[in-house]
Amino acid sequence: MLEIQQKIRNCKRCPLHKDMPDGCHPVPGIGPHDSKIVIVGEALGENESIMEEPFVGRAGELLNKILKDCNLSRENDVYISNMVKCRPTKNNGKSNRPPTSDEIQSCKIWIWSELKKLQPKVIITLGAVASKTLLKLKPSTSMKSIVGIAKYVDYIGSTIVPCYHPSYLLQHGRDKLEETKEHFAFARSVLDEL
Ligand code: URA
After folding, report:
1. Interval between CA 154 and ligand 1 midpoint (Å)
2. Distance 192 CA to ligand 1 centre (A)
3. How far is it, in rounded angstroms, from Cα 75 to Cα 135?
4. Distance (Å) of CA 177 to CA 33, 78, 120, 165
5. What is the C-alpha to C-alpha distance for residues 166 and 184, in angstroms, rounded to an integer?
6. pLDDT band at 22, cuts 50/70/90?
7. Is the shortest distance between the CB of 166 and ligand 1 below 6 Å?
8. Ligand 1 pocket, residue 26 CB under 6 Å
């Protein structure tokens, strides 16, 4: 796993690495290498690109709260990663933008490598990019039609639980927070079956 993480830090597969802040690198996942739950987000935001750690900004604060409320420890129970290991930006680096399909395609090798190594029991995908890519769904699939519907996928050997992205919850979906906690609690309950 350390070798994969080092390769991710040195990745130059697409031009996004050039937009990382001075001295900062693409960011691999973080967490215990025997985690039975892997959480996959979309791409780095500004704070994540500077701190070189996934989910350390506002979305990360909400993710931490959801984890805590579901009796999951960020440090001990989950490995947290992203589909895209850099920060896609617009307006001369001032704001975030969603990753393009080319960027997702060229970065996909890394999340597959991390998952192959970790062999998690459950993968919580946060938002449409991670959910649709890992479930191999059509781009036209709506998040609403798949959220909370757990699916075992034999090409990874894990159950994927698609959840709303914390950034979406912060912007539009506060009322979806309780529902999201139920989805995380379901993901946790799969571990109790071990
Ligand atoms: N949003 C993500 O999808 N990932 C992060 O690491 C931070 C915000």
Report:
1. 26
2. 27
3. 26
4. 28, 20, 24, 10
5. 12
6. confident
7. no
8. no
d(CA 177, CA 75) in angstroms, rounded, equals 22
Does the CA dihedral 127-88-64-58 come out positive or negative?
negative
Considering the chain, what percentage of its residues have pLDDT values greater than 90? 89
For residue 79 the two structure tokens come to 């490995």
Contact 133, 83 (CB under 8 A): yes
Q: What is the pLDDT of residues 46-97, one digit of tens each?
A: 999 999 999 999 999 999 999 999 999 999 999 999 999 999 999 888 899 9
- d(C-alpha 167, C-alpha 188), whole Å: 22
Residue 191 has pLDDT above 80, yes or no: no
Q: How far apart are the CA of 48 and the centre of ligand 1, in A?
A: 7
3-state helix, strand, coil in the chain (%, to 5): 45, 15, 40
Atom of ligand 1 nearest to the CA of 42: 3
Confidence grade of residue 44 (pLDDT, cut at 50, 70, 90): very high
pTM across the whole model? 0.95
- For residues 89 and 130, the answer to whether their CB atoms sit within 8 Å is no
Nearest to 67 by CA among 118, 28, 116, 31: 31
> What digits encode the pLDDT tens for the residues 137-166?
999 999 999 999 999 999 999 999 999 999
- Specify the residue with its C-alpha closest to ligand 1, atom 7: 55
